[in-house]
Amino acid sequence: MNNSILMIHGSGGQATDDLIQTIFTRSFSNEMEDSAVVAGHQKLAVSTDSFVVTPLVFKNGDIGRLAVCGTVNDLLMRGAIPKYLTCGFILEEGLSIDLLKKIVSSMAQAAKEAGVSIVAGDTKVIEGNGGMYINTAGIGFVDPKVDISAKKAQDGDIILVSGNLGDHHAAILGDRLSIHSEIESDVAPLNTMVERLLESDVELHSMRDVTRGGLATVLKELAENSQKTFHIYEKDIPVSRAVQDFCGLLGLDPLYMGNEGKCVCIVAKKDAQKALSILRHSPYGQNASIIGSVETDRPGQLLLHTDIGGIRRLSVLQTEGLPRIC
Amino acid sequence: MMDRTDIIRYLQSYDGPEVSIMEVCGSHTGAISKSGIPSLLSDKIHLISGPGCPVCVTPSSYVDRLIELSMRKDTCVVTFGDMLRIPGSTVSLAQAKGQGAHVEMVYSPFDILKLAAKAPQTTFVFAAVGFETTMPVYALLMQTLEQESVSNVKLLTALKTMPPVIDTLCAQQAKIDGFLAPGHVAVVTGYKVFDPLAQTYKIPFGVAGFQASQILVALYGILHAYHQPKVMNFYPEVVTEAGNEKAQELIDRYFEPVDAVWRGMGIICGSGRQLRNQYSAFDAGSANLNEDHKMNQKCCCDKVLTGKMRPYQCPLYGKACTPLQPQGACMVSEEGNCHSYFINQRNDR
């Protein structure tokens, strides 16, 4: 086999078959049928996402791991246990086969970690400069008793975030700007922490993964959906020193920076400490923190109590943000 | 010795004469919004945001000239990101790019050297916009262009200096009782540049850094020096009386004073800098870009920039004019007054 992707790899003929057999089937071990037939469940969660990140490989991750974690985390946020993924690859002519192998193997590893099977896939080749794009769709099983939604925050609830903010965004931007730093992407599947929360008796009202738009955008949307007031405290919001310095240098605000392995949870006040302990003792949750509370004084607003005791009203991200972060 | 809590308590309970303090620097406006300082001030202290965002005060004819250059077959315009979305008389550079204009966004002016080396047949024009803070970088770029005999890089300049615009504001408008003076500008110029203004208008200037506590201390100092002709340096870590003399020399070597148009304010004598005559080969046609056209006739950027109107008092603010659909320059740049007020939903007094 040639060492880079050629147009013929997308022909649908022998070359396509070779590519699938040598790279995808080996890693994903799915049946080579027109569709996958899988075992079902009463209540399903379905999600899909496309991944166009550049660079394809970054510190502590790559587009493959991102494509699995992104969809897995979206399913988890509705209280679903992720079970099956499909993946569609769009490969540009000139893509290195070695790089493709590496990315596919990283997908397989992330899928294993998240407990999902990649059961169906597709590959297309287009003209280009050696880039690639991945779409994943996922199905998760939802316990009929679970009812988590963006509208469900209640007066008195406590807001938690599962860890440090801004790492993925800073890692990608730092890479593109050739700024040397120790910052790594936080891309990770959050299945263990979410499954533990679901198995516990913690009264969990809302969950969201903190991706594009950052914490401020996610919480502002939840405040609007529930028509409650979210009060959060700058001093309690976890941001690593390296990301703080990076933001200071470039004039960025960690509250609006994307992550790929972080979530916010809104839980009943009585269960806040228990939820915090579950998050902190789960993989990727060691820096989890209680960052605020839900009240009713100004419905739909997100109020940040700043370090100096001032109040800043936060809105959703209004600018373009960073293109092609995921 | 007062600590931060004492200062906040003082600013909250201040009950003296009503005081209006202008921050001229866009970074100060951003820091004030982000730290929630307005929510900590007594009703008698008014913060006014001034014309301190360089792209916001750049007239539309400058943007039009950039677009005209970028449409040429053999020319590429190179710019910082915040210039892309500033409206010209009809479209912005970003919209022109969508129609095939040659535009590259960079994070440092020196990135233009790599672009120019890769494509020697193309002329690369840097959109050199900024105040005293960024001028040394353009002067360094000029030095490199000169030393390395780079012939396919030019500058389209819209460089401005702070003291003349502060002078104009003070002369036009009676109700500014003090200035939160720009720390980054003062690093280059030294705080002495504000002395003549303090003396002429009998008002205090507090040079401040950009942390919330640095701003609070400066506000406290300005209040205490009410109507006294004083320049106070609250940013001594990096600001000296004389400033960075090497940078000043380098700026003087390449640039000379010129009358400049400020968006919405007209021509202010001696408030700009342009390339000296002997470097005119590096100039992409910066002279006489004086027309200033409003995209929307109801836009009040001019009144906002001069502190005569708060962003939220403009009839377009938050309605026809938002960061996603800006009608005026102040809503475009992250340093713009309207943008900063909008994203932080500031509707303080």
Secondary structure layout plus pairing:
The complex is a heterodimer of chains A (326) and B (349).
Chain A: H1 14-28, E1 44-51, E2 57-58, E3 61-62, H2 63-76, E4 80-92, H3 97-114, E5 117-126, E6 132-142, E7 158-161, H4 167-176, H5 191-199, E8 204-209, H6 214-226, E9 229-233, H7 241-250, E10 263-267, H8 272-280, E11 289-295, E12 302-305, E13 311-314
Parallel strand pairs in A: 4-5, 9-12
Antiparallel strand pairs in A: 1-6, 2-3, 4-6, 7-10, 7-11, 8-10, 9-11, 12-13
Helix pairs in contact in A: 1-3, 2-3
Chain B: H1 4-13, E1 19-23, H2 26-35, E2 45-49, H3 60-70, E3 75-79, H4 81-84, H5 93-98, E4 103-105, H6 111-118, E5 123-130, H7 135-147, E6 153-160, H8 162-172, E7 178-182, H9 183-189, H10 195-201, E8 205-208, H11 212-224, E9 231-233, H12 245-254, E10 255-262, E11 266-275, H13 301-305, H14 337-343
Parallel strand pairs in B: 1-2, 1-7, 3-4, 3-5, 5-6, 7-8, 8-9
Antiparallel strand pairs in B: 6-11, 10-11
Helix pairs in contact in B: 1-11, 7-12
Any overview of this molecule?
The complex is a heterodimer of chains A (about 325) and B (about 350). By secondary structure, chain A is an alpha+beta fold. Chain A folds into 2 domains: about 140 residues, 2-Layer Sandwich (60s Ribosomal Protein L30, Chain: A), CATH 3.30.1330.10; about 160 residues, Alpha-Beta Complex (Phosphoribosyl-aminoimidazole Synthetase, Chain A, domain 2), CATH 3.90.650. In chain A, the strands form 3 sheets. In chain A, strands 8-10-7-11-9-12-13 form a 7-stranded mixed sheet, sandwiched between helices. In chain A, strands 1-6-4-5 form a 4-stranded mixed sheet. Chain A is globular and about 65 Å long. Chain A starts with 13 loop residues before the first helix and ends in a 12-residue tail after the last strand. Chain B has about 350 residues and is an alpha/beta fold. Chain B has one domain: HypD, alpha/beta domain 2 (Rossmann fold). Chain B contains 14 helices and 11 strands. Chain B has a 6-stranded mixed sheet, sandwiched between helices. In chain B, strands 2-1-7-8-9 form a 5-stranded parallel sheet. In chain B, helix 1 packs across helix 11 and helix 7 packs across helix 12. Chain B is globular. The model of chain B has no long low-confidence stretch (mean pLDDT about 90). Chains A and B meet through strand 13 of A and helix 2, helix 11 and helix 14 of B.
